[in-house]
Amino acid sequence: MKRIVIVGAGQVGQSLAEALSADGHNVTVVDTRSDCLEAIESHLDVRTVNGFGSHPGVLEAAGAREAEMLIAVTDSDEVNMLACQIGSTLFGTGTKIARVRERSYHDYPRLFSPEAVPVDMLISPEAIVTAQIQRLVEHPGALQVLDFADGLVSLVGVRAYYGGPLVGHELRNLHRDMPGVQTRVAAIFRRDRSLRPDGHTVIEADDEVFFVAAKQDIGLVTSELRKLDQPYRRIMVAGGGNIGLRLAEALAGRYEVSVIERDPARAEQLRELLPEGTEIRVGDSADDQQLDRSGIGRTDVFCAVTNDDQANIFASMLAKRRGVRKVMALINRPGYVDLMQEGTIDIALSPQQATIGVLLARVREGGTATVHSLRRGAAEAIESIVSGDARSSRVVDRRIDELQLPEGATIGAVVRDREVLIPHHDTVIRSGDHVILFLTDRGLLRAVERLFQPARRFF
């Protein structure tokens, strides 16, 4: 259990406090907004302190002197950096993590060093969400694409559809139809209930299927679970803020990209910043006539990434009704994410869930290298790096069928010396392996971490 101070009680701070307290950590949240702190105290077992998170007295009252970690996630980059500076200089706080959105700060890594601004880890929700959208554009038909082991292996979520190649057939057909392709279905969710898949499991229409595969095989496996969607060509981005700019930059050149921005001055900035050939239009993306004038009928992917949840939802619904193949909406309120994921919108993007995974990988023990939240935080996929030897570890040099994995935890892949292995019951785990696990219930995490955590003593 760690003592952790979180500065900032916004959506990211609240979601992080919930995840860390659920993991059993001693959490204190600092903010000036008493209503946000009251909301946190009403449903979480955490301590709160009302005050400015960059003030030394407030940080000391929050326990920064005894804390092993300080995570600053306010809306101000400068407050976050100063909080880390004070935590280090005055209180010797261990690990300092800061949310920094301004891209120019990231361009100078020497700025964040023990001799300058002592931040151990920078996080940018905008960069994380942009990368998430980019992967979804690159893999048509996918609901989620999550990378592990430096991108060597991916976990992909797809929804099976009526008439799909594998619907109505047993999963073992997947291997028969693709000889030589290394893949495994890690989990199936049917009507919000998880199923533990085996070779005899029959896929039904509307099943949410998560499979693990080497990155180069994603397209092949996706085509077996649903017809292979034609590659996307034309992308429309609603909103030219930080995320919209990053996304347009990332996609320009490979796709036809257009951006709709309400503010004429910001639109003019976008014209200067984005590559030639990117179409910039001034207007309201939630206006159906504006969408029609922008060529929505010829668009393959519509991404609504403004700062207004309701505008994103409405614009995405309009785009879907105009026949856009895939629509994505950036949604900050967790309740909206659950509501929209089951409706007209294909993919609801949550900056909080995307950011939390990055943070949890830093906080957690047991060699956890990567954490991804799935199904709006109900399930998780983690990458655990195996360490120790047969004397100190309960997994090293043991077959998978000898491991005491809790019910609901599945090993989807093992990466050994940069080779992706889809394990079988007799696969032996070695020290240094990167093990990719799928947890249908995040409550299983502690048991899994204990299993992979080497003993501190040798006998």
CATH architecture of the largest domain: 3-Layer(aba) Sandwich
CATH class of the largest domain: Alpha Beta
Q: If helices are DSSP runs of H or I spanning 4 or more residues, what is the number of helices? A: 15
Helix content: 25-40%
| Main sheet properties | 6 strands, parallel
Strand content: 25-35%
| Mean pLDDT, all residues | 87
Spatial extent as radius of gyration: 23 Å
Tally of distinct domains: 4
Distance between the termini: 25 Å
Q: Which fold name is given in CATH as the topology of the largest domain?
A: Rossmann fold
Outline: globular
Organism: Thioalkalivibrio paradoxus ARh 1
GO molecular function: potassium ion transmembrane transporter activity
Keywords: Ion transport, NAD, Potassium, Potassium transport, Transport
Pfam family, one: TrkA_C
Comma- or semicolon-separated keywords:
24 strands, Rossmann fold, NAD(P)-bd_dom_sf, six-stranded parallel beta sheet, 31% helix, 4 domains, single chain, 459 residues, alpha/beta, RCK_C, Alpha-Beta Plaits, globular, potassium ion transmembrane transporter activity
Topology of this protein?
Elements: E1 3-7, H1 11-22, E2 26-31, H2 34-43, E3 47-50, H3 56-61, E4 69-72, H4 77-91, E5 95-99, H5 103-106, E6 121-123, H6 125-138, E7 142-148, E8 153-159, H7 172-177, E9 183-190, E10 193-195, E11 208-214, H8 218-225, E12 234-238, H9 242-251, E13 256-261, H10 264-273, E14 279-282, H11 288-293, E15 301-304, H12 309-321, E16 326-330, H13 334-341, E17 347-349, H14 351-363, E18 368-374, E19 379-385, E20 398-399, E21 409-416, E22 419-421, E23 428-429, E24 434-439, H15 445-452
